[in-house]
Amino acid sequence: MITVFDYGAGNLRSVSNTLAELGCEYTLVRNAEGLRNASKILLPGVGHFGQMMRALDALDVRETLVDRIHAGIPFLGICLGLQALFESSEEAPEVRGLAIYPGTVRRFPAGARVPHMGWNELEVPGDSKLVRNLPGRPYVYFAHSYYVPVNERAAATCTYEVPYTAVLEAGNVFGVQFHPEKSGPVGLQIVKNFVSC
Questions:
Q1: N or C, where is the chain less crowded by C-beta within 10 Å?
Q2: Is 158 a catalytic residue?
Q3: Cα–Cα distance between 90 and 102 in angstroms, integer?
Q4: Is the pTM of this model over 0.90?
Q5: Considering 91, 158, 169, 181, which one is annotated as catalytic?
Q6: Which residues, in sequence order, are bridge partners of residue 160?
Q7: How far is CA 129 from the centre of its chain?
Q8: Catalytic residue from among 91, 144, 169, 179
Q9: What is the spatial distance between Cα 73 and Cα 172, in angstroms, rounded to a whole number?
Q10: What is the DSSP string of 33-68?
Q11: Catalytic residue among 21, 48, 79, 144
Q12: pLDDT tens digits, 180-197
């Protein structure tokens, strides 16, 4: 069963609807105990990096979330849920991320129209669990002003002013910068791929 962590993210209902459409059993949790009992964790995210991290801290789940990821529990972060995996973000430099990975989430360059909203193509250089069984030119829906730079864990990239990590995959840890719950059949397939990991 998938555990969806509910810290008040605006896309929670859309994510729940996607799981229901796939026929997946899931539960919503808001505390550390729920995370400790999870066999898979999904962290949705929209809004502001600082607000999200402060919400996780207010619910006292930061340490448990990090422990569960390090213990090998499959984890999928959506949008801010991906960005939270890193040490910090230019959106809220004073707030520490989960620091699963080193690095800083960056703002799109000056002059770029932000937020980057709408459909854009994934560039998939190789095979990975999360992006398997997708069409040759998969398009997904983005809504963000900050991005994770391309790194060795990028399973797919996208280019908007600069290339950036659109899909992260590293062992049991997965993240997507776009919103699979708003990305039609491609998004459904990506969530299905996570469910089957």
A1: N
A2: no
A3: 14
A4: yes
A5: 181
A6: 162
A7: 15
A8: 179
A9: 6
A10: HHHHT-SEEEE---S-HHHHHHHHHHTT-HHHHHHH
A11: 79
A12: 999 999 999 999 999 988
Which amino acid appears at position 123 of this protein?
A: E
Quickly list DSSP for the chain.
-EEEE-SS-TTHHHHHHHHHHTT--EEEE-SHHHHHT-SEEEE---S-HHHHHHHHHHTT-HHHHHHHHHTT--EEEETHHHHTTEEEETTSTTS----SEEEEEEEPPTTS-SSEEEEEE-B--S--STTTT--SS-EEEEEESEEPPP-TTEEEEEEESEEEEEEEEETTEEEESS-GGGSHHHHHHHHHHHHT-
- Burial environment of residue 127 by CB neighbours within 10 A (0 to 12, 13 to 18, 19 or more): exposed
| Residue that the structure tokens 């730079």 belong to | 149
Residues 88-130: tens digit of each pLDDT:
999 999 999 999 999 999 999 998 999 999 999 999 988 899 9
- For tokens 């699979």, the residue is 180
Verify whether residue 79 is a known catalytic residue. yes
